[in-house]
Amino acid sequence: MQKDNDILLLKGNEAIAHAAIRYGYDGFFGYPITPQSEILETLALLKPWETTGMVVLQSESEVASINMIYAGGGSGKCVLTSSSSVGVSLMQEVIPYMAICEVPGLIVSVQRGGPGLGTIQPSQSDYRQATCGGGNGDYRTIVLAPCSVQESCDMVGLAKELMMKWRTPVIILSDGSIGQMMEKCILPPYTPRRTDEEIRRQCPWATNGLGLKDRKPNVMTSLELDQALMEKRNRELQKKYARIQQEEVRAEHYHTEDAETLIVAFGSAARISMGAIDNLRQQGHKVGLLRPVTLWPFPEKEILELASRMKRIVVVELNEGQMLRDVQWASQFRCPIEFIGHSGGVIITPDEISRKISEMGKL
Q1: Is the whole model's pTM more than 0.85, yes or no?
Q2: Tens digit of each residue's pLDDT (9 = 90 or more) over 295-305
Q3: Which letter does DSSP use for residue 297 in this model?
Q4: Bond before 104 cis per omega within 30 degrees
Q5: Contact 295, 244 (CB under 8 A)
Q6: 204 lies in a domain?
Q7: How far apart are CA 269 and CA 288, in angstroms?
Q8: Distance of CA 130 to CAs 74, 187, 359, Å?
Q9: Does residue 69 sit in the same domain as residue 159?
Q10: Are 262 and 345 found together in one domain?
Q11: How many angstroms separate the Cα of 313 from the Cα of each of 5, 238, 265?
């Protein structure tokens, strides 16, 4: 076991594995698929079951993984899984079950190009899958989008806080670029896993038998044959989602204070866009970036406020424009909105962004 606050050179995927141990998660259940396999591999190498008692299990499939997360979270444990694109698609049947039963759990999605099996190269083509819900029903999940190895680590801790606070699935939407790149990462101190007594006090809703002599049995089910009661449960979820939208929006500003052209991008596309902005500002052009850190809840108010004083907004994504519509809706078209992007695993460059923005007109 390393010391607290270690500084290591890690891949984004490796940082997530280290963070899961250090933030006191109780278990990981996952299945290998490129480009996220290092999460499971690193956990296997670190053997946290020998030091912290954390369970690490390679399941027989992604379907099995997410069902284990459903069960672990339902018992009040802090658990996570990870996969990539097509693997997360297989998990979509269970995520709505977790949402309606208000079961916490973390799903790490390290995106690859698609649709289908696609390519193992980085992409952001699962934005809608994550933010709109890939399963059935009126539900949402909190979605966090890291743009560095350090954030990949830190967001594992943030996800734990949010999923237990709101009793909801949380998705960390990474991609093959963030997952595979290596950077310096400051690891957090070790947080002890909660005891049974702490779980009993903190999770009175859990189906684990703890404290059963002092309460009635807890039952979790998504089935409700009375449509009026089902609507009532849905309305209660919507109230919770409204509170999340009020309290949990996160976004990063980069040179927006005097910007006339605003780039909106997330994850690795935002990181690439920062290089383009630095180049353009050296040429005297006033360009800034708004990076949504939470893809849901989306920073709608911030985009609307910025749109009111911009000459244009440019949305940059590694897909065919999936976040574009959210930006259009949030901005209420108060300024022209353009799109720059690639899909299928093709990576955009800072020079291409700079050139295309320059071609859009005088900055």
Answers
A1: yes
A2: 999 999 999 99
A3: S
A4: no
A5: no
A6: no
A7: 14
A8: 21, 27, 33
A9: yes
A10: yes
A11: 40, 30, 11
